[in-house]
Every structure is written in C-alpha cells, then in structure tokens.
Amino acid sequence: MTATLDRPIIATRSRSAVELRGVSKTFGRGGGAVTALAEVDLRVEPGEFVVLLGASGCGKTTLLNLVAGLDDPSRGVVNLDSGRPSVMFQEPALLPWLTAGRNVELPLRLSGVGRSARRARAAELLDLVRLSGQARKRPHELSGGMRQRVALARALAATQPSTTGTGEDGGLLLMDEPFAALDAITRDFLQGELQRIWRTTGTAVLFVTHDVREAVRLGQRVVLLSSRPGTVVREWRLDGAVDRQELTEEITGRLREVISTHAHA
Amino acid sequence: MRMPDLLPGAGTGPGSTGTTDSAAVGAGLDALDTPTEQRRPRWRRALAVGLPPLLALAVFLIAWQVLWAAAIWPEYKLPAPGAVWHEFTELVVSGRIDDVIWISVHRAVIGFLASVAIATPLGLLVAKVSLVRAAIGPLLAGMQSLPSVAWVPAAVLWFGLTDTTIYFVVLLGAVPSIANGLVAGIDQVPPILPRVGQVMGAGRLDSARLILLPAALPGYLAGCKQGWAFSWRSLMAAEIIATSPQLGIGLGAYLKEGSDFNSMPGVIAAIFLILLVGVGIELLAFRPIERRVLRARGLTPAR
C-alpha cells in the first residue's frame, strides 16, 4: 500500500484491484490545454466486474492508459495492488507472424517463463476460450471472434504471470471496447463467454464500452462518465433483484442527458 | 441468451445447459466464420506462373529472327539469334563462363552482404532516433535517385583501378535502398503492436527483438531485394567503366570487351547473361524467403 497515510480509513479496508483517487489528467499547457479527466474516484474490488460507460470524449481511453501505467495522472493517485494489469483492445492486435499459441505465450515469454511451462499454460488458456487444437493456426486463418478470444487468452496469460501465485489475487483485466468491432451474433456469444471466463478465473475486470445493453448485461457495477472532461456522474450496482430492462432504459436516459449538455458547448 | 447474474466463483459448470448451448453456438460460429483458403494444385500453379513468360520469350525470339531475316539493319547492328547463341555456347564450352560469372557474382555477393551489414544499423538509427532521421533521412532517400555510376569517376581517382573502387560503388548503390527499406518497414508497423508489448511490460530491447523487428521484416526484405538489384547494376556499371587486367574479366568487362571488338553477338550475349544472373539470384534467393514471410502473415505475395 502506498500513499494512504493521509487517509487512514482506506488503509484499513481490504486490498482493491485498482483504486483511483482524485485523478485528473490534462494534456497540453496554457490556452490549448485539454482536460480529459477531472477528479475521478473509482475503486475496483478484487474479482469485481466494473463497466465504465460513456460517450465519445469521456476520457475512457485516457483512464485505461493511466491504470495500465502507460501514462501518469496530472493530479491524484492510481493505486494498483494487483500487479501489472493486462489490456485487451478493440482490435485483437495479435502478432501476425506468430501462431495463436505463440501469441498467448508472448507475455509469459517476456516475464521469463520457461518454454515448456509456457506451452502448457498457453494450451490451458486456449482451452478456456474454447480454442483447443487451434494453437498452430496463424491469426489470418482465424475468424474475427476467434482472434479476439486468442487476444483474451493472451491478456489472461499476462494477468497471472506465475501459475504459482496466490490463489485469491486474480489480477486485473482492462478491456477497451473489445467487442465493438464484431458482428452482433459474435458479440453476443463473446459477452457470454467473457462472463463464463470471468467467473472461472476470478480476475477483476474494468470494461469500457459505450453500449448500455452491453454494460448492463456484463457489469456488477456500471459507472457512467460525463464527457469533456470525464468525471463520474453516477454508478449503479446490479445485484440479482434489479430489473435489467428498466435499468437499461434509466441508464440510457442519463447517458442521453449527459450527451445533450454538449449540444451548445 | 442472458446469463444469470451470479457472483464470481458461483459460476455455471460445464454441464449446465447454458454453457453447453453457448459451446455449440461458439463451435458453429467458428466453423462458419473461419476463412477458407483454396489452393490450386501445384502443377496448375506452376503452369500459370511459368507458361506466360516462356510464351513471351518465344514471341520475342520469333520477332527477332523475322527482323533479322528482313535485313533492315546490317549484320553488325542486328546479329541473328543463332549468332548470339553460338557466342554463348563458345563461352560455355571454353569454360570461360565460370570465371566471368564467378568474378562478378562473388563481388556482388560480398558487396551486398557488406551493404546489409552497414545499412541495417543505419536504418535502425534513422528510424528510431528522430535527430538522425531529421539530419540524414532526406539525404538517404535522395541517394536512391542518384545513379551510382556517377560515383565511378570519383572512385577511380580516389582508389585507382582496384577492387576498392568497385566495392565503393556497389555500397553506395545498395546501402540507401536497404536502409530505406528498413525505415519504411519500421514506419509501417501498426502502432498497436508496440503498444501490446508496452502493456505487457516489454523493455526496449525485448520490444525491438520480439515485436518491432519481426513486424518490420516484410519492408526490410523488400529493401534487401531492391538492394540486391542496385548492387548488381552498380557492379555492372563499375565493371564496364573501370577495366584493368588486375581486376580480371567479370560480366561487365566481358560486355566492354565485346563492344571494343565490335562484336555485337558478344555484347548481346553479355547483356543476356547479366540479366539472367541478376534475375536468377533474385528468384532463387529472395523470392522463396519473401514468399515464406508473406504467407506466414496471410499476405499473398505479389506472385
């Protein structure tokens, strides 16, 4: 735990997967400066599935970059207790010259895992995403949905760098609109698959989308961000009792409100 | 198909209907969406690739023979195809062809390998260090349009009629193409790929070795192929201009010899040989590597 001395209440709480406190991010200086995020507080519990929902310009990508450690906040603190989070993008971003299996092995290779352990772990993860026996295929020989599943397996390989790690710490998976480029049937299937895999692995997920239905279907908690600058507007907790249809409409209403405030901006 | 909202760990087991259902859907989607690759049988492909050039060659030879028979130009300007063939067989039978080809090819290969050794680090520097790129990037690109023959007079003055002159000209011809190919290859790497390495915590070295260089390989290979062509033509230019007994007789000098003796069949035979060797090495050495690299990435080679 770092930088919790001024907030003793937080230190007594259990570890989070990631915690953002008062995070702001401004690009540029002076008159041309653009504030992408303003005073964002967000906490993801270990194993929790949180969906960030927002229109264009809500700073989703900036936020993920901050959590992934690709960028530093201008103000505020990002606390990562779950080690390096792994990231899944909208495109599969597989290395086209490597087979599916080698792509999954890549993060293990970078963290110095031996060849046979790597191979075994990759086979295990490809099994998990229902791609057993496809390890030797190259990305161009796979369909879009299959490529995105390989990317998911690769991201999972990166979340749990050591198979001997502590069981309770499932790591953190950042997903940046990972299904946005897929057709409707494949997207529906992959959403189901993601839920299944999330339950099996116990990894925490921070999922970014602009699709309200997707958010309500997947998340345990949906966080609505405003745009320019991105701030947390509201969040909804989705426990068993909620009427999802109604909630989808409510959230859509709020999102439309947020967007219409920009009509004259 | 809405999944019940459950807490992690309380998930559905593989036996429940929800997951079997989605397993079947997934398998169906995979089967339907997987791209299919149809390949024609090998002999059909060989025929499609090999036949058209052979036909073109036949047409060319017939046209040549007809023009010669029409006797529009005197014999010393347009010899018969048969005369050129005779010149060629004489070269083969006397065994001189081995020396001539060996002298040129070994120079071209050494020159090309040296060019690769110089151009690769140079290209990396230009691609990755913005100051270096700003300083010599335009020069390097411009060098490609400067015919390397232009260096021959200067090289002769500096180094005399020696091998150094020849290698100097070959290097100046090939290094810019190879370096530019590498720069273009690196510039064309989709930015998402280095990001993938970055989020996985790859260091600079790992990132270059495992991601950047393999991603830039197609552009680099294209540069090498062009570099070979440039080193071959620079070599020929150097050999034609810089002739001396201690340099031996390579293909270029053989061509010059034909011209000096007013032997048109010799000149034409030399031109054909130069073409044959240059294209032959490209086909035998570069084409298979390029094919393999592009096919592995799902990029169909341009034949």
List the helices and strands and how they pair.
The complex is a heterodimer of chains A (265) and B (303).
Chain A: H1 8-12, E1 18-27, E2 34-44, E3 49-53, H2 60-68, E4 75-80, E5 86-88, H3 100-110, H4 115-128, H5 144-159, E6 172-176, H6 184-201, E7 204-209, H7 212-218, E8 221-225, E9 232-237, H8 244-260
Parallel strand pairs in A: 3-7, 3-8, 5-6, 6-7
Antiparallel strand pairs in A: 1-2, 1-4, 8-9
Helix pairs in contact in A: 3-4, 3-5, 4-5, 7-8
Chain B: H1 17-33, H2 42-70, H3 81-93, H4 96-128, H5 130-143, H6 152-159, H7 163-187, H8 192-199, H9 204-241, H10 251-260, H11 264-296
Helix pairs in contact in B: 3-11, 4-5, 4-7, 4-9, 6-7, 7-9, 8-9, 9-10, 9-11, 10-11
Q: What is the compact description of this entry?
A:
Helices cover 37% and strands 22% of the residues of chain A. By secondary structure, chain A is of the alpha/beta class.
Explain what you see.
The complex is a heterodimer of chains A (265) and B (303). Chain A has 8 helices and 9 strands. With 265 residues, chain A is of the alpha/beta class. The N and C termini of chain A lie far apart (41 Å). Chain B has 303 residues and is mainly α. Helices cover 75% and strands 0% of the residues of chain B. In chain B, helix 9 runs parallel beside helix 10. Chains A and B meet through helix 3, helix 5 and helix 6 of A and helix 1, helix 8 and helix 9 of B.
- Strands of the biggest beta sheet of chain A: in what spatial order? 5-6-7-3-8-9
SSE pattern of chain A: HEEEHEEHHHEHEHEEH
Question: What number is the mean pLDDT of chain B?
Answer: 86
Quote the beta fraction of chain A.
15-25%
Structural class of chain B, by secondary structure, is mainly alpha
In quaternary terms, these chains amount to heterodimer
Category by helix and strand content of chain A: alpha/beta
Shape of chain B: flat
Whole-number average pLDDT of chain A? 82
Proportion in β-strands of chain B? under 5%
Helix content of chain B: over 70%
Series of H and E elements of chain B: HHHHHHHHHHH
Number of strand segments of chain B: 0
SS element count, helices of chain A: 8
The span between the termini of chain A is: 41 Å
**Unreliable sequence segments of chain B:** 1-17
Computed over alpha carbons, the radius of gyration of chain B is 28 Å
Q: Over the alpha carbons, how many angstroms does the gyration radius of chain A reach? A: 19 Å
**Fraction of residues in helix of chain A:** 25-40%
